[in-house]
Design brief:
alpha+beta, 378 residues, 13-stranded antiparallel beta sheet
Length: 378
């Protein structure tokens, strides 16, 4: 993998090579469990990930209010919406200690969203499945081996409703669960479980996503940083005024079709960075401070360099006054593609939170995050 440093005036780049390390292992394990078709969803953020061990490692006790507020990416994953009542109560209802989990991941919008409970190995996943069977989960007849549920699809049971229960929730809705390698897949209905049971090709197999992950790997050395949360983003994030259904190609890795569609839309959207195929937004904890990394997949490093320059300029114009951050940028060659990688690091860790991520997600929720806006010029 070839690393090209991009000197920017405002960017203080480090010259250390991290090619030998890999901080993306848990993230990639999650991506391998998810069908690539997820990348065709017309959503700005298509996939969400939380490294449980990295998040719990932010503080010795807790989780504190700052650590909970940091879950602005992970909160989209349904089982995490129950932890506000306390991890002990969550564990009683989940039939597993929170700290035994490796990761959580998910995609989709309620009520059709899907969650993944990642464990350290197949044996651990099988043990959790057995505990659920000993509770109130029963086998589901059909063509998906191992599928089980704690009720009938779309039939809530208010006598079992509980905000503390990640398998039921406040409306008492049933859950369908499928053991898959070292994970459990959780969904509200059995619809689509046959596809989820055979996630090939997976999101990890996408050449575009692989390029973005390669850039993320370069930016986060495993001996000095951890990925706490991450989201796969689509060009919808940078073209919010456009019709999402018209942005993405029918086949996730159809780059030629994607280029044609995005180029046409970029020319009509005004100022912004070159259109990217997809990318990753990652919440990172270094040894001394929280950070956020953007890694955007491009067809070549010339376009990626323009993006690095453009994101740096947009950050300075729109975000520098809201939160203090050391901004660095680089391009990373990844096979035939190239990643534009931009890191924003806080001066120090004030607590278990991430003020940079908080600002980004607040702006995103208000539809006012323009740093990654796609356009024809700067």
């Amino acid at each position: 993998m070839r690393l090209t440093a991009v000197a920017l005036g405002l960017f203080a780049l480090c010259g250390t090579s991290f090619a030998a390390q890999d901080s993306t292992q848990a993230f990639q394990q999650a991506l391998k469990q998810v069908p690539q078709a997820v990348l065709s969803a017309p959503e700005a953020m298509q996939f969400f990930f939380l490294d449980v061990q990295a998040w719990r490692g932010l503080e010795k006790a807790g989780p504190s209010a700052d650590a909970m507020r940091r879950l602005s990416i992970g909160q989209a994953i349904s089982p995490l919406q129950s932890i506000g009542y306390g991890l002990d109560k969550w564990a009683d209802a989940a039939h597993i200690s929170f700290n035994e989990l490796s990761y959580f991941a998910g995609f989709g919008q309620p009520p059709g969203n899907v969650a993944y409970w990642g464990l350290k190995d197949r044996e651990s996943a099988a043990k959790l499945a057995d505990r659920l069977k000993q509770a109130d989960f029963k086998p589901v007849n059909g063509d998906v081996a191992g599928l089980m549920a704690n009720g009938e699809a779309n039939k809530p049971d208010m006598t079992k409703a509980s905000g503390q229960d990640p398998w039921r929730g406040t409306m008492g809705m049933p859950t369908f669960v499928l053991p898959l390698d070292a994970a459990l897949v959780q969904a509200s209905t059995p619809t689509g479980m046959k596809v989820l049971a055979q996630p090939t090709p997976s999101v990890a197999d996408s050449e575009i996503v692989s390029a973005a992950v390669a850039g993320l790997k370069e930016a986060v050395p495993s001996d000095g940083g951890q990925i706490v949360q991450a989201a796969i983003i689509s060009p919808v994030l940078g073209l919010q005024a456009a019709d999402p259904a018209k942005l993405l190609p029918a086949t996730p890795d159809d780059m030629e079709s994607a280029k044609q569609k995005l180029r046409a839309l970029a020319e009509t959207s005004g100022r912004g960075i070159p259109p990217y195929f997809a990318g990753v937004i990652a919440d990172v904890q270094t040894r001394n401070a929280p950070a956020v990394v953007f890694s955007l997949a491009y067809a070549d490093c010339a376009a990626a360099k323009q993006a690095v320059d453009g994101v740096g300029a947009a950050w300075k114009q729109t975000m520098a006054g809201a939160v203090q951050a050391d901004v660095q940028g680089r391009t990373v060659q990844a096979g035939k593609l190239c990643a534009a990688v931009i890191s924003m690091t806080a001066p120090k860790a004030e607590n278990a939170g991430n003020p940079i991520l908080a600002q980004i997600m607040n702006r995103y929720m208000q539809r006012d995050f323009t740093v990654l806006q796609i356009g024809s010029s700067q």
